[in-house]
Specification:
Layout: H1 17-36, H2 49-54, E1 63-67, E2 70-74
Antiparallel strand pairs: 1-2
């Protein structure tokens, strides 16, 4: 058996039909997606950070009493 020799001067053809089929389907889908998507911006005003730092957190105490018949949780300062 002899092998066929291909000349190096011949150019290979690029088959782009599969890519073109993909683009024909993809472009209309992307265009329809752009029509139905909306961007909304919500403006929110937050209080300044200085007012948050001015309120000190008081130390909170919790009293837990453990007995043989159960547990009791007490908040002595009325938290």
């Amino acid at each position: 058996m002899r092998r066929k020799r291909y000349s190096r001067d011949s150019e290979a053809e690029l088959d782009i039909t599969a890519f073109m089929n993909l683009m024909i389907v993809l472009v209309p889908i992307l265009l329809l997606g752009m029509v139905f998507s909306r961007i909304t911006v919500v403006e929110v005003t937050l209080p300044p950070a200085a007012t948050l730092a001015a309120t000190p957190d008081d130390d909170k105490q919790v009293e837990l009493v453990i007995r043989g018949d159960g547990l009791r949780v007490d908040f002595p300062r009325g938290v």
